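chain below, 125 aa
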Amino acid sequence: MLKLRNWARSLTVLFSWFSLLNAFTRTIESLLAGKGVAAVGALLGGIIVSWVLWYLSNPEVIAAFRLRESLSLRESLSAAAGVTTGIPKLDNPDGGTTTLNEMNPNSITLFGKKIDMRAPSPLYS
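prediction:
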């Protein structure tokens, strides 16, 4: 999940649905057994799982996971084929040039927060 892998998001959604079903049955079971505290705990767990499902189902989050997967696939295919792509340069209206790197962006913006998409640098160089 932390590396924005789409398969991890899909598995989390699947397990969250199971957990939500479990929270619902535990809440009903606890209420029927007269255990109010256990019912409240199961209900709170269900609310948290519902929030996780809602968040992972947002179009922006899905797009971020798919973008990261697409970028990883392109990088691995280019490395396997031995292809090195140059970064095209664009002319600015002020006369300078700007590099455009659509194949491997340095960052994306998700919910107004900038996320760095570059590989982490080693701690000791």
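The radius of gyration is 22 Å. The longest helix spans residues 6-33.
thats it, cya
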